[in-house]
Write a sequence for this structure.
């Protein structure tokens, strides 16, 4: 199945952001149903695995290139689903996943980016942030966990940090998983209806729904202030899980293909080694 590039369809344009004007249930660049979407995702798998392996192999030549996938979104927007169904398509040895929780006492003694810098992907790897440095301008803004002046400073610090990352060879792919309040409610209820998912339910998520409008505004400000040319934001409609997974897979594949990693050339005589194996005395 040949699909058009999805990046231009979900890339956030520069300027003010109004999340209410962006559908949460659309299927960017895809006209099929769920079954066809899942088939399309499976079809992307081998392409994604191949280009990821080339990136992983490239590090043996001294390449410092890597890719950082930043996943942000409201609770139940599907960060875990993306990890399982999209990132799970590639070889796990070339992936580094970090889920950022509330900062520890040690982390709080440092600048907010300190713990982020310690979790960056190594050369040749795909790094995935399940939540990220953006928590420090989202939840911190909604719940006033830092002074307004400090939150204001952080937008610029994030832009400088991401510019340094890109300059050092790390491609930054930022995805905001855009979900509606109604869909979040349905997913939370589904967790309560299934005893096997009670462990995933946090009563605090219900409390946070009271701040939905404040979170949407915090996201709009953060997206606008950190939507740079070198590290742009992509708003991924996430009410339909299968479409969300497919869209992120397409974004990841397109960006890796643009990086165009190549297989390292052999530093030995291939034919000589082939002859040695063919002519060897059988092991005893």
């Amino acid at each position: 199945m040949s699909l058009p590039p999805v990046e231009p369809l979900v890339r956030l344009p520069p300027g003010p952001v109004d999340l209410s004007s962006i559908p949460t249930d659309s299927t960017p660049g895809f006209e099929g149903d769920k079954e066809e979407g899942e088939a399309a995702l499976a079809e992307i798998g081998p392409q994604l695995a191949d280009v990821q392996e080339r990136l992983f192999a490239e590090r043996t030549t001294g390449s410092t290139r890597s890719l950082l996938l930043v996943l942000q979104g409201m609770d139940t927007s599907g960060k875990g689903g993306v990890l399982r169904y999209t990132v799970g398509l590639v070889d796990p040895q070339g992936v580094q996943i970090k889920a950022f929780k509330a900062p520890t006492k040690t982390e709080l003694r440092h600048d907010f980016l300190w713990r982020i810098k310690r979790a960056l992907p190594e050369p040749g790897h795909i790094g995935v942030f399940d939540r990220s440095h953006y928590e420090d301008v989202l939840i911190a803004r909604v719940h006033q966990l830092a002074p307004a002046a400090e939150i204001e400073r952080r937008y610029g610090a994030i832009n400088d940090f991401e510019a340094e990352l890109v300059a050092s060879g790390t491609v930054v792919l930022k995805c905001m998983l855009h979900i509606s309040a109604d869909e979040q409610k349905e997913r939370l209820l589904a967790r309560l209806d299934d005893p096997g998912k009670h462990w995933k339910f946090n009563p605090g998520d219900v409390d946070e729904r009271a701040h939905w409008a404040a979170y949407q505004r915090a996201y709009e400000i953060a997206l606008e202030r950190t939507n740079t040319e070198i590290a742009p934001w992509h708003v991924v409609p996430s009410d339909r899980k299968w479409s969300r997974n497919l869209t992120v897979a397409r974004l990841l594949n397109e960006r890796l293909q643009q990086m165009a990693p190549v297989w390292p050339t052999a530093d030995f005589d291939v034919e000589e080694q082939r002859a040695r194996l063919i002519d060897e005395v059988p092991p005893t």
Summary: The chain has a mean pLDDT of 96. The longest helix spans residues 34-58. Residues 7-279 form a domain with the Rossmann fold fold (CATH 3.40.50.300).
